[in-house]
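#onboarding

Welcome to the new folks! Below is a worked example of what a typical request in this channel looks like: someone posts a single protein sequence, and someone else replies with the predicted structure as tokens. Don't worry about understanding the tokens yet, we'll cover that in week two.

Example request:
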Amino acid sequence: MIYRDMFFTFFPEILGEIYFRSGLRLVPERKYPIDVGGVKKIYIFGTSGIGNLIMLTPMIKSLRYGIPDAKIKVIVLPNGAKYVLEGSPLVDEVIVFDGKGKLREIRHDWPDLTIAATHRGFMRAKEAFRTGAFWRLGFRYNHEGKQNSSFLYTHAVNYDEDKHEVEQGLDLICPLGLPEIRELYMHVEEDDRSFARKLLHENGIKDDILFGFYTGLDQDHPKGRCWPLDRFAELGDMLAADYGAKIVIVGGSTETIAANAIADIMKNKPIVLTGKTTLRQAAAVIEKCQLFVSSDGGPMHIAAAMRTPVIGIFGPTDWVSHAPYGSRCLVVRSELECAPCHKPHGEGVKCQSLDCLKSISVDMLARAVSQILV
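Example response:
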């Protein structure tokens, strides 16, 4: 076992060094189909954000129903993403990735198939290889000027950045030949729904029309996803007047300052729940909303998964691959030529002025609201 561990620990680095220096590829891509009947243990790298993991759930659901007897385990980052799937019938285990020692534990479980579903180049390919899985699925990609440096996978799929992440995930399991299920998923327990009902009732919400807001990351954050707060406030008052709706603002504790700033501006005071719920409790609150308006971020994708009509506001981030996914989802975005400048797993936002977000007016959102509520 110790020699096996040494091989999988150090061999990827040796292969990488040879390939990136000389272009010599020592591990050929397999040309034969994956034996789905022989797949009993599946490990999926979902090591990215909460929203990214939600966008992988159609792929995971397709695996669950396509290979029902397989054990499916999803590897996530320690960022709260585990609550998207932990305890759900779609997976047998959610593993929080905290270092290379975790790869050794996975390797000792002798997985049949590893899927590197988050495309972060050679690093993710090495991690997939180090699981010791017989079959390894991942994306073809360029690395350090080298074409098709996906040589640590047994089966590679072309990465198409012009596709939505849901479609990318489903493309990744095409070699398995499974029926595709195109539905997002977010695991919510009945206790979470009971908490949400009680919390809303305590804040005066009974049979009221309820619209939700998520401000997104603060504008000072490098990714700059946040629509101007004064416009959120203006939109909230407009929706309260035109639809008789009450506004609830959800998010993490770090977004409380932004939420309170909106509340201070609004004439019709919103319910501020930032930092007062768990991720699943927030999902249950979003599920109670008749509409959810959101900057690009995890709660936007949660709303889509909970089948709540959602409008996503996009400035510098990529709406092609990250738009809310579903039949009752709309995107309001900047028409500036420079947008989007922030690509997934690429360079950050290239300016500080965020003119792309400032170019999105309240009237643009109001038109989208009237369209989605028809």
